[in-house]
Amino acid sequence: MAGVEMDPELARNLFEEGATLVLLGVPEGTELGIDYKTWQVGPRFRGVKMIPPGLHFLHCSASNRQGQGGETGPRTGVFLCLKPRDVLLAHWDSTEEDLNFSASQNEEEVARVRAGLRDLDRFLGPYPYDVLRKWVSLTDRVTQEVVQNLQPLSGKICAFADVIPELSLPHTQDRVQQNLPRNDTECQSMKEGLERLPKMKLREGTELRFSEIPKQNYPEGATPAQITQCSMDLSYALNCLLERYYKQDPLKILGELQFAFVCFLIGNVYEGFEHWKQLLNLLCRSEDAIQRQRDLYLNLITVLFHQLGEIPPDFFVDIVSKDNFLTSTLQEFFMFASSPGVDHGLRKRAVKFKAHLTKKFRWDFEMDPDDCAPVVVELPEGVVQD
């Protein structure tokens, strides 16, 4: 874990006020990181010092150093809300191949570690201050309350879902009673083979607790015209979500948007990406809300500006359809944001944001989508069409 050069005065302040993570027993070669930086642990590593107070994401991946190419396992992480001069203690759990913070509940052990920090200092790597600005820009709306509400009850963010069978059916007779195929017969088709696989569910306490996106975009008893309108303008569904989860402060939905994005970008949790897409779709396709929720959408643009700066331009392009979901979603947002009924400041900010994205990613927000347009097929060189 290499040191990071920083201003001496800043270093002194962080040494006095910064938090410390003492991480004992982490095997050499383990991939470990905090926030936006990742390292491979060396033989002398005992933790991280000079951590700025606030929200941080500690993550690690066990490494098979004997394996070909030093393969690493799936990433697991935990959000930490650190106070000035905090000392958190964790031991490596070789069975789970993860850090166990239960030692931080032992006040005597933590007190001994705190008293010996000077001796531990040479084994502690400094927080990578060069990534702090980027990290804060991605999480400035993720409060401790947001983390507590959305993270799994286990407290761990896992790249791979921890799943277990819905039913425990170890014996053939058990499967017969559930009308499932027997294990001792040959599969006659792919469908039959899939049916034999046990149905799985997430282990209780390991699932991310995101807000539930409304499955119905329109109110009960809506007329056909209202259903059509609510399908084109998702404001009703957005308002239902805000009323249920963020009634006191609608802007807190942006904290969930950031939380989902970080879970995907740094935690490698694909579910985070899917939820981020769904939330963004709901926000961008709500014409009435854009006119009424000025502050929400001004801040949404800021959040997206920082998020989209961290991903390659072609990331969102579907390899089959070549359709960039983000350009089509933002195209509707920019169209709604240009309406005369929208606040002048928001309209102006949206125009600047669209120009920025057009220049940086070369995304075309002006082309009218036309599903009925003919498809032009380019023939390979040397092929002559009759």
Q: How widely separated are the two ends?
A: 64 Å
Note the run of SSEs as H and E: HEEEEEEEEEEHHEHHEEHHEHHHHHHHH
Strand content: 15-25%
Whole-angstrom Rg: 25 Å
CATH class of the largest domain: Mainly Alpha
Q: At the fourth CATH level, what is the homologous superfamily of the largest domain? A: Aar2, C-terminal domain-like
Portion in helices: 25-40%
Number of strands: 14
pLDDT < 50 runs, ≥5 residues? 370-386
Structural class of the secondary elements? alpha+beta
Q: Helical stretch count? A: 15
Summary?
It is built from 15 helices and 14 strands. With 386 residues, it is an alpha+beta fold. It has a five-stranded mixed beta sheet.
Feature tags:
disordered C terminus, 14 strands, 15% strand, globular, alpha+beta, 386 residues, five-stranded mixed sheet, 3 domains, Serine Threonine Protein Phosphatase 5, Tetratricopeptide repeat, 15 helices, Substrate Binding Domain Of DNAk, Chain A, domain 1, single chain
